[in-house]
Amino acid sequence: MAEPTKSPKKRKAKPSLPVPEPDTTRRQEEEGRDVAEPLGETEDKPKKAYDIAIFTGWCKGCGICAAFCPRQCIEMGEDGQPLVTNADRCTGCGFCEIHCPDFAISVRVRKKAVGDED
């Protein structure tokens, strides 16, 4: 004799989730802005300056930092070590720092020197 089958329990309807914002890159392209430019920066605000520090003792020279930098601030030198060549173009995105497998890069907002009025 076959046993009676149980009917599946009905699930309660889950509340709908909010619709996510469109992709940041797509939004920047639609606005005609440089993709590597951070969204918060405008022409009215003074551009922040960033310091890129490379700890050569930790770096194995893989080149990931140079490959991920959207503004080409870092290039690989002839000795296979990364060099900061265009620090003034840095937007502080931190892609180089995030992707470095050796934690050998630090990107920080440049502190004003004593006497600077900017």
UniProtKB/TrEMBL annotation:
What are the alphabetically sorted keywords of the record? Iron, Iron-sulfur, Metal-binding
Basic and acidic residues composition-biased segments: 23-43
* GO molecular function annotation: iron-sulfur cluster binding; metal ion binding
| Top-level taxon of the source organism | Bacteria
Q: Would the keyword Iron turn up in this protein's UniProt record?
A: yes
Q: Which residues form the 4Fe-4S ferredoxin-type domain?
A: 50-79, 80-110
UniProt keyword Nucleotidyltransferase, yes or no? no
* Cited Pfam families: Fer4_7
Under InterPro entries, the record lists: 4Fe4S_Fe-S-bd, 4Fe4S_Fe_S_CS
Which residues does the annotated region (Disordered) include? 1-43
Protein's name in the database? 4Fe-4S dicluster domain-containing protein
- Organism the protein comes from: Desulfacinum infernum
Query: What are the top taxonomic ranks of the organism?
Result: Bacteria, Pseudomonadati, Thermodesulfobacteriota, Syntrophobacteria, Syntrophobacterales
